[in-house]
Amino acid sequence: MIGGYVAHGKNFSFIIIGEYRDGDLYYVKRVAAGFTPHLRDQVFNQLKPHLEVSLYKFARTEPVGSRPYCRQNERVCPVMPERRCELEFVERTHSGRLRHALFRRLLS
Predict the structure, then answer these.
(1) Taking the mean position of all CA atoms in its chain, how far away is CA 67?
(2) Reduced to 3 DSSP states, what percent helix, strand and coil does the chain have, rounded to the nearest 5?
(3) Separation CA 88–CA 101 (nearest Å)
(4) Full set of structural domains in the chain with CATH
(5) pLDDT tens per residue across span 5-45
(6) Whose CB has fewer CB within 10 Å in the chain, the N or C terminal residue?
(7) DSSP secondary-structure letter at 40?
């Protein structure tokens, strides 16, 4: 599930990916690889209608104050976690995160 993006320029630098476990959405990866400029614009246009103004939707798995999905001075734009995407990745870590993830496509 796409849970948000990190804003950059006229669209985004990363999408923020999560997955549902026991009814809660957990962060698994920031993804920047796999986007052409045209695909990045297409994905951004699909995410804009899903912008969420309330609190971020990921379940807390990190210490309070830690935000693994963004770094200092980055503007995170949460979206309603309604859009799914297909990723390619090398492996999962023991904590459930993805390594070397690559965006493939949005799913319907």
Answers:
(1) 13
(2) 15, 45, 45
(3) 6
(4) 2-107 (2.40.50.140)
(5) 989 989 999 999 999 988 888 888 999 999 999 999 999 99
(6) C
(7) H
Is-contact 103 34, C-beta < 8 A?
A: yes
Q: What pLDDT score was predicted for residue 63? A: 46
Residue 67 token pair: 């935000």
* Cα-based torsion angle of the residue sequence 59, 76, 79, 98 in order, rounded to the nearest 10 degrees: -60
The secondary element (H helix, E strand) that includes residue 35 is none
Length of the chain: 108
CA atoms of 44 and 11, how far apart (whole Å): 6
* pLDDT tens digit sequence for 46-93: 998 888 765 556 776 554 445 566 677 788 888 888 899 999 999 998
Strands 76-78 and 2-8: antiparallel
